[in-house]
Amino acid sequence: MLVIPVFLGVLVVSGIVLIFLGVTGYDFNRILFDDEYFKHAVEQTSNYGEELTTNGDLELIKKEVKNFNQRYKDFGLSLSVFVGKEEIYPLTASNKNQFIDIVLSQDERHLFVMDNTAVYRENAGEYSIVLVDNNYLRYTGDNYENYRDVLIGLGLLMFLLFIVIIILTNRFLIEFVFNHITGPLDILVYGVHQIRDGQLDYRIEYTGEDEFSAICSDFNEMAQRLLDSVNGKQKDEANRKELIAGISHDLRTPLTSIKAYVEGIEKGVASTPVIQKRYLNIIKEKTNDLEHIVNQLFMFSKLDIGEFPFYLECVELSREVTVIVNSVLEEYKRKSLSIKFKNNTKKSTVLIDRIQLRNAIINILENSVKYKNKELAKLEIICWEAGDEVLLSFSDDGPGVPCEALEHLFDVFYRVDPSRCNPSKGSGLGLAISAKILERLGGSMRAENVMNGGLAIIMSFPKELGGFKLEKNSDS
């Protein structure tokens, strides 16, 4: 805004000064250098005279005289060729000048000056070359005043020109910069209004390579985070409602049974000790179911808010899974679930909590037992490596689940059966707890349908380098 106008002003003013001084070769004014102009013209006239005397080529001299007159016609300078007192070139009215006869009457070269006229004669044998300057100004007091007036006028002209250049260039630059700023600002303001009006999926498309590019990129990132936050809150609200509905249902079912059997005992329906004992056993089982639901709900809540303590160790995953599977193999055989473990890793280590990993695996095994549709179900566990991760899959031969239900398997209190009419098949918290455990361990869990039928639960763990052991609680 400041440098460009000043630079342009100095450039234009400097050009005017150079033109005025004659440095550029273009004669703007001869007032300051009148003597130099005339001396130069006299020298050229002498050269022409010597050339004509030496060569005697009159036609060549005529061409040079013609060029001279065309070049200096605006400055009152002219050349003529005479034989005696008769002008032979260029046959103009210049011979009417009263001072030409004076210089032609002299035998040798002669200079005559009077008023503002100077006449110079150069002999060349029988020819004479006469230089006439009708604007000759000798250095006098009047000339000094003219010089001063010209300089003052030139100074004022340059000052005004400098101011005009600054004003015009500033106006242009201000308009250019203003348009360069207001355009992106309008785009940004429009985007803000879209977000304000609830259009959280709106994104700014800005292709400029300037400061606004980063701002628009940050705006889009902010909008995406805001959208994710809103979607997260909506999902949390839906989960909260599902959680309340699930708790209500899963607690009401055993409580209703307990209440019914207690009333049966009170009203004498259980009249014999055998029936009373059977009623009490049922009440005990339902109480255990209630305790199991409450314990799982408590554990999930602690995991969800990050207050459940984890004691992390860097261990070889395949070895740890082998220990867990061998410890429960006979138990699940009695539950009609055959477990097979296959290791395809090379001593890959991960950071885990041994107890919580066992809980996550047991939840998956229990899920396979509860939803098996065969007399003897099979479950295959495979451990393998994929890049920077160690994967652990649990594939059963059960009925599987609909594709649209896969992404909801790890939601709290979710069952594929929407009627939730069979609470004995779990509270819907087991897989949600396992997913939370994997999340706290820095891994993830997903579900896939097996090609030949059944469901596959896949755990992924980030690899750990080194063999250190680290203990930390929930807020570490």
Residues in helix, %: 40-55%
Strand element count = 12
**Could you spell the SSE succession in H and E letters?**
HHHEEHEEEHHHEHEEHEEHEE
Shape descriptor: rod-shaped
Tell me the structural class.
alpha+beta
Radius of gyration: 54 Å
CATH topology of the largest domain: Heat Shock Protein 90
Unreliable spans are 26-32, 418-423, 467-476
Strand order of the largest sheet: 2-1-5-4-3
**Binned strand content:** 15-25%
> Kindly, what is the distance between the CA atoms of the first and last residues, rounded to a whole number of angstroms?
55 Å
Largest sheet: 5 strands, antiparallel
What CATH first level of the largest domain would be assigned? Alpha Beta
Describe the protein:
The protein has 476 residues and is α+β, with helices and mostly antiparallel strands. The chain has helices at 3-21, 34-55, 58-72, 100-104, 141-196, 211-266, 273-305, 317-334, 354-370, 430-440, and strands at residues 77-83, 86-89, 110-114, 117-124, 127-133, 313-316, 337-343, 349-352, 377-386, 389-396, 444-449, 455-462. It is rod-shaped and about 170 Å long. The model is unreliable at 26-32, 418-423 and 467-476 (pLDDT under 50).
Could you give a quick summary of the protein structure above?
The chain has 476 residues and is an alpha+beta fold. The protein has helices at 3-21, 34-55, 58-72, 100-104, 141-196, 211-266, 273-305, 317-334, 354-370, 430-440, and strands at residues 77-83, 86-89, 110-114, 117-124, 127-133, 313-316, 337-343, 349-352, 377-386, 389-396, 444-449, 455-462. It has a five-stranded antiparallel β-sheet with strand order 2-1-5-4-3. Strands 7-9-10-12-11 form a five-stranded mixed β-sheet, covered by helices on one side.
